[in-house]
Amino acid sequence: MKITFYGHACFGIEIANTHILIDPFITGNPKASHIDINQIKADYILVTHAHQDHILDVEAVAKNTGAVIVSNYEIYMHYTAKDFKAHPLNHGGTFRTESFSAKYVNAVHTSSFPDGSYGGQPGGFVITAGDKSLYVAGDTAVTMDMKLIPMSTQLTASILPIGDNFTMGVEDAIIATDLVACDKVIGCHFNTFPPIEINVDDAKKKFTEANKELLILEIGTSIEI
User: Fold this and answer.
1) pLDDT for 201
2) Which SS3 state, helix, strand or coil, does residue 192 take?
3) Around Cβ 29, how many Cβ atoms within 10 Å?
4) pLDDT in tens, 185-198
5) Which is it for the CA torsion 195, 139, 132, 154, positive or negative?
6) How many Cα atoms sit within 13 Å of 216 on the Cβ side?
7) Is residue 169 within 8 Å of 198, Cβ to Cβ?
8) Each residue's pLDDT tens digit, 31-70
9) Is residue 84 within 8 Å of residue 62, measured between CB atoms?
10) Which of 149, 142, 144 lies closest to 125 in space, CA to CA?
11) Cα dihedral across residues 62, 66, 69, 75: positive or negative
């Protein structure tokens, strides 16, 4: 898996010749102003929940690429009503293609569209391709439901929010690594807005002291797992 960070909680995941985009919020993020969404490839857009900072560019990217939007039933209904291609999931369900699978798992958060309409229950995804599995937590508090993930899947890495205030912070993210049995974390949902600003060096130090690895990607850069 090649993972590219597009800022906030938005990631591109390339698996062979398949391109997945997670929670596209780019044009509304000044720190991602150098990212041209017209150049982003997407066969599938996975949406964890309906908040604006996770769906702002869904429609633009879907129009550009013809991508299938994969999310909970309420988000599916929202986009199919606008004639976008979509696939509905609910918690515990798995979306499967020839190149990857994506299981929709629990998250503890809220979910509403920018107009206030109901966005269904929020979730995260466990994306598996071959012998690699990536947990994308979405916006969530640390929750004991995370313990269920390693009972069926050995994770290679996790994408966890670390910005506090709206999600878990650094200390709870470290607890989450024990629950999901995965010490390699890619941080997200931090430093985009004042309420979620953190000291990145301090966060890395806390992970290191706990014998964990916190990867902080610059916007537009990629890693492979």
Assistant:
1) 98
2) coil
3) 19
4) 999 999 999 999 99
5) positive
6) 15
7) yes
8) 999 999 999 999 999 999 999 999 999 999 999 999 999 9
9) yes
10) 149
11) positive
Give the residues across from 125 on adjacent strands. 104, 136
Residue 9 · residue 219 · CB < 8 Å: no
Q: How far is CA 21 from CA 69, 117, 140, in A?
A: 9, 24, 19
| Closest alpha carbon to 64 in 16, 21, 7 | 21
Query: How far, CA to CA in Å, does 185 sit from each of 7, 33, 154, 216, 220?
Result: 16, 25, 14, 9, 18
Note the residue count of the chain: 225
**Beta strand 11-15 pairing with 18-22:** antiparallel
Give the pLDDT confidence of 107-159 residue by residue, as tens digits. 999 999 999 999 999 999 999 999 999 999 999 999 999 999 999 999 999 99
Burial letters 193-211, b for 16+ CB under 10 A, else e: eeebebeeeebbebbeebe
At residue 123, φ and ψ (nearest 5 deg) are -155, -175
Which bin fits 130, alpha (ψ -120 to 50), beta or left (φ > 0)? left
Spatial distance between the Cα atoms of 205 and 13, rounded to a whole number of angstroms:
27
